[in-house]
Amino acid sequence: MPLPIPRLGIISALHQEQAGLIDNMAQPQSVTRAMRDYVSGQLWGIDSVCVLSRIGKTAAAATAATLIERFGVTHIVFTGVAGSVDAGVAVGDIVIADALVQHDMNAAPLFPRFEVPLLGQALFSSDRHLSDWLFEAAGRFVAEDVDKMVAETDRELFRLHRPRVHRGLIGSGDEFIHGPQRRVELREAFPQLLAVEMEGAAVAQVCFEFGVPFAVIRTISDGADEAAPRDFMQFVERVASRYSFGIVRRLCGLG
Ligand code: ADE
Description:
Blueprint: E1 8-12, E2 26-33, E3 36-43, E4 46-52, H1 57-69, E5 75-84, E6 94-102, E7 123-125, H2 128-149, H3 152-157, E8 165-172, H4 180-189, E9 193-197, H5 200-210, E10 214-222, H6 228-252
Parallel strand pairs: 1-4, 1-5, 5-10, 6-8, 8-9
Antiparallel strand pairs: 2-3, 3-4, 5-9, 6-7, 6-10
Helix pairs in contact: 1-5, 2-6
């Protein structure tokens, strides 16, 4: 039975995080809207719309809203990279969000810290079914594809072991985390936080408001530490693109 996803929106921040997907689309059609190219077509049998949001929460929110309102997607997956803030989550691992929080939201003392004002919540849960399917897809990618898709030299360069697939809390903010102080502050605020990035929780809020199921999957590019800026760029170029492509291909093939 095909996956019950009538029209899938796939967002990434950077083109490297979506490399290969559009090349594999059947009958791709591109429409430019508000400075972004939305490419619609069939991805391994699933009607899909791919788009690059660029970096940050505003960019991601605008993109998600346009996907829903203008392009009629029924589900959204955000795929990209993140920094790890948990000792058990290594570079090359995969994190699927159970929930997301905007870690830079702070309207205190008017509203509790981290709560989205007037919405009454800080944490946004991702869709269970979509996240389960992504988890299964990521598992198959790790078991069967990753060794073939990531060059051995790159696996050595980044000291990649067999990736583990984690599920848990992801934090998003308009901030690239690259040092111990912010890492510690974030972990104190959210002891269960696994990874940080700059878009997911904004997409989560938009999807929550529209009632559209969504999921976020991230490959860990760096340790959100001093080495993060260097590790991030290299990893995105050489590794992350293969992960996103491989996992989305497995997701579409689940049905
Ligand atoms: N995306 C990837 N690494 C990140 C980091 N360290 N901080 C924020 N977003 C990221």
